[in-house]
Amino acid sequence: MQERFRTLRLVLTFLFITLIFSSCADEEVTKAGSRFPNVYSSDDSWLISWYVCGSDLESEYGAASADIEELLETKLPPNVRVLILAGGTREWQNDMFHSNVGNLYLYDSDGLHQLDTMKNADMGNARTLENFLRYGRENFSADHNVFVFWDHGGGSAAGVCADERTENMLRLNDIHEAFSAVYGANPAEPPFEVVGFDACLMASYETAATLAGYTRYMVASEEMEPGNGWNYDAWVQALADNPAMGGARLGEVICDSYLAGCREEDTEEEATLSVIDLARLPALTSAYEQYSRDVLARAAHLSPAFFAALDRAAQRAENYGGNTREMGYANMVDLAGLAQETAQEFPSAKALTAAVSDACIYKVHGDYRRRGGGISSYYSYDGDEDGFSAYVDQDAALMEQKCLLYTMLYGELPDEATELLAGQSTTGRLNALPTQRQQIFNTAALEDRVLDVDRDGSAFVRLSAAEMDMLSSVRCNLLYLGTEEDVILYLGSDANVDADWERGIFKDNFDGTWPMLDGHPVYIEIVEEGDDYNLYSIPVKLNGRECNLQVAYSYADGKYRILGARRGLEPNGMSDRNLIRLKPGDLLTTIHYAMSASGDDEEFMPVEVDTFRLGSHPEVRDEEVGDGTYGYLFEFVAPAGESALSDIAIFEIENGDITTTVE
Description:
The protein is α+β, with helices and mostly antiparallel strands. It is built from 17 helices and 35 strands. Helix content is 28%, strand content 31%. A hairpin with a 4-residue loop joins strand 19 and strand 20 (487-494).
């Protein structure tokens, strides 16, 4: 973000010296086949092991306590029990648990019982997870086992369960290490019927591969979860009422009750939840490996055009976790969506899409997450080396994918890729990452690209075929240039560009309007561009706390819909599970990025602009920005987070008329 702001600063310095002196249907439930039948006896026993890492979700919102209260509303038979380990928060919002220990409890037909405490239990440490698994195995035999992780999640690279006290978290390798130490993998008879993640972003291929041999089914969400999470009174009670159900049916109940709860809380628009059959994971792995090898073989030529085409496909597919400069990047893409977007180039994509559909046996989703296949995977949208390094370290990630993304990020083919393409086996781990990148995308050549104005008064830029070949997208950036106020106000970026990729001509689509919240201009960034809707993020302060409004724009009616507000990703990669719905009377402050027009500032800085109370029906809509001087720059976006900015076009608006000039 700061690098782009510095570039904007350089573009605008000379300019201001010159000026001074001269956003479908209702939410859907997608079913794979008919309802799942009972597969066990009603007399079979069940143990649900619940790993509750309270974190700030508990200390600030009491979310873990609320879910435990939900559980206590259920009536259990003697053959269904719930073993609870609760910790990982600075403060519990109940009178039962203590913050400096792991609280070990059992809930059964006789109620809630304290069993023990685990001193200094670090919920983000593999040893704590291992000890809990071992305690359950040694003390509570059952015909069928369920395990549920509860907390924030961050996807394949970051993992799950960030202990608020220690700031440690469980990576996928930690989860595998703990399960392996207690049980050992048994694909034919896995020790768990279901392993679930009541956490964000964990329905990935890498998570499923981590649990292979340890559970029959996995239940998790591709997207961030809202704070209400799973409905424990509903799904635990359903199991209590029908212990004959199998994991597939239980997963279906968890999904259905989750979406029903999201509807009740009005948080369903971006909700997702999937049931993945791990017996079908080998076929998915085989298809993913073949597809990845095919893509890697093409990547070996180090063609900018190839990587740009791949990145465009990843941008068109659903992506999860926010993925903007302001929100941060979770770097998770829908696996089936990516395969479908590249199917014309790679015949193996069809088999991968089919394998995803076969493995994800049930899923639910809201209106603005209806394109996903139910299983995600890691993709480096931003090119961040720390995130990629964390992903590379996960043993469950495919070596082919590690090599592919390595090649895109560093501009060279790793030795392991050469071995893979030659049909040789590899260790599954990459050698140390390079200290610097080789340049594939020469975006520097596009910096300050000269603009022109056509006969209709539109600013445009012309690009060659070679230049377009290295770009994922061309976007627009808008600024308010206030000479009298001595301020440059950055209004954000959008995909609203009249783009002719055939002729290489990109025109502004500016009509004098910009998104506003209850009449107040906002800084806005596009998250995802789809065929029928776009997703946006708007930084604000909501009742004094910095967060990001999540906004959808529907092409069908040309309207925006505010989905809620979330904080950005934490530095450790964990997403914010607490989706906040706006309420009348909320105090909201818009956040922009600004610098002085006179040249006193070195870079753009966040500034609070308008503070106001929300009315009964807060809305975002395109409104006239008003008379004044505005700057417009094209942004040329390449893979791995690289980009460049064009020269600037000036829009002078007077009485609604727009006059466009370029230097």
